[in-house]
Amino acid sequence: MKNRKGKQGEPETDSIRKPTGPGGYADLDAFITHLTTEQGASVHTVEAYSRDILQFLTFLEETSIERPQRTDFEHYLAYLRDKGKKVRSIVRSISALRSFYNFLLADGKVSSNPLIDLEMPKFQVPIPRVLSQEEMKTLLTLPAGQKHALRDATILELLYATGLRVSELVSLKKSDINLEGGFIIASGKRSKERIVPLGTYAREIIKVYLNEARTDGSPNHKEGPCLLSKNNGFPFTRQAIWKIVRKYGLALAKGHISPHTLRHTFATHLLEGGADLRSVQILLGHEDISTTQIYTHVDKKRLKEIHKKYHPRG
Question: Is residue 260 annotated as part of the catalytic site, yes or no?
Answer without folding.
Answer: yes
